[in-house]
Write a structure and sequence with these properties.
- By secondary structure, the chain is an alpha/beta fold.
- Helices cover 34% and strands 27% of the residues.
- A hairpin with a 5-residue loop joins strand 13 (266-274) and strand 14 (280-286).
Length: 331
Amino acid sequence: MKNLRWGLLAAGTIAAEFAAGVDESEHGVLEAVAARSGDRAAEFASRFEIPKCYGAYEDLLADPDVDAIYISTPHPLHGEWAIRAAEAGKHILCEKPLTMSVAEAEKVIEAARANDVFLMEAFMYRLHPQIRRLAELISCGAIGEVRAVDVTFSYHFAVPRLIDPALGGGGIFDVGCYCTSLARLVSQAATGQDVVEPEEVLGMARLDENGVDEVAFGLLRLPGGILAQLACGFQLTQDDHIRVYGSEGQLYVPKPAWIHEMRKPKTSQIILTPEGGEPEAIEVEATQGLFAREADHVATHLEDRQAPELTWAETLANLRTLERWREAVAR
């Protein structure tokens, strides 16, 4: 497989994690980086030994040596730059959420289709062996008929973009998207359907004076008769976890794949407790860092234009769920 030459569109914290991942990947190389400031781009390029740096995103898209663009701007800018990348003939890996609305996401997908380029929303946790094993345990009936799922992703760290509505602030679109994605995955594994959406969405939130959701809770009724309880936020530290309850037992993930600790190669656990039995720790080994795995996943599925775990239909279904959750808490 030819090495995929990456251009990084934005040079923030998550871009640094992805850059380190590309360096560790089997099929990716760092070709260029662009930032709003030329000095910032130059500093980032020096840190990761990237050959080229640009002080304008347009210059990155015009670089003929760049095959794929990784977009990590603030959420509201994802759509614009994904479309422009597609029009420039570049393959696209865009940080979650792909856009701030379903309508805009549909435009991005249409641009990818019209320009025949790869497009994937960067839900890197879905590629972790831990999550794949969790789905296998559910689908093979390890806990019987799935009845409920409980997911939390919540921390206390108010960076400026999270409290600014103009920058896509709020916990639901920033980390609640992981909760909806995981809950829907549980329903998909339990029912055998490729993509599911909730039949009902309820929610409540603590909103600041600008209407930004600082802490939010959601309830979903999913296909298969599965109920989901979700908690997210950026102004409250809670215990991040996944719990799946079935008629014959439960599964517990104390350290979900999305937390920083799990992004490096290491062994994680899924605790299986049969109904009336003793807990059993199922160890899952990850031999590759999560961002390196993500970069290689793009390279592997480039010709398919979509990734199997993260299809365009999957992205739209999750965004529709997020919109319904945000509408519910804003009432």
